[in-house]
Amino acid sequence: MTGGRRPLSVASTIPPCPQLQRRYYEVDTTPATPPPPSRVRSAIKFGAFGLLFAGLGFVAAASPLFTGLWDVTRRRSDEDSLNGYIPQHDEAKAVDEFIKTHPLSTELRKSPAMSESRPHMRLPEILRRHNLTGGTLLGPGRITVPPFCWTEESGKSLVSISHLGTDMCGHPGIVHGGLLATILDEGLARCCFGALPHNVGVTAKLEIDYKRPVHAGTYVVLRARTLKVEGRKAWVEGQLETLATEGEEPVLLAQATALFVSPRFASVIAKLNAAS
């Protein structure tokens, strides 16, 4: 060295290399907290589940209603009505078989002018259970089986056979006169239905002349014929008599005359009664 100058250190004159510098950063290792769910999204989710379960509940609850509506709107033929009743009790089975095979039934069944049916069995079940003669009064001890009925076309005449049980009495052992009036009212009305608009009418007048007491447990025959039809009105006469066995003559029990009118809302009644 010369001039008394201190030698320079190479290391001290070279600036530090940025690539060689160490830098330290703090890294947060705590798991990230998810953002709170949206209230709108939660409401939509719960609403969807609510609608789903409400819909399932409605379907389960309404299924009998759908079945009932289908039953009401389904039209039943005479053949359907004949096949629609199956007796469940021994008394009903015996009565049903007796009427089916009776000579009068066989004779009426052969007539081409008469149509056989069981009118009450044409009613939908949902309506029949609330019907007086087709539901409330039908069964062993009462009107034992649904009556058999033969009607002539165009509402000209009618014959029906019923069995009146032991639980329909007014005086002991005697069938209540009110039941006989009901049977006459329904039978005479059904006789003229075919001659009235929409095949239905309501009772305007009914007169009954009781001839003899009807003993409980009796088979009865209703015979009716339409006398006159004018527009919405029909006049009918009929009678109740015993179902005679071979070699016997029928006994006259009651006679009746009636006036029936087809109401202006007859089309609605006809639909509810399934054109019975």
UniProtKB/TrEMBL annotation:
Q: Please give the InterPro entries that the UniProt record associates with this protein.
A: HotDog_dom_sf, PTE-AB_protein, Thioestr_dom
Keyword Membrane recorded: yes
The Thioesterase domain extends over 173-240
What keywords are annotated for this sequence in UniProt? Answer: Membrane, Transmembrane, Transmembrane helix
Q: What stretches pass through the bilayer? A: 46-70
> What is the official name of this protein in its record?
UPF0644 protein
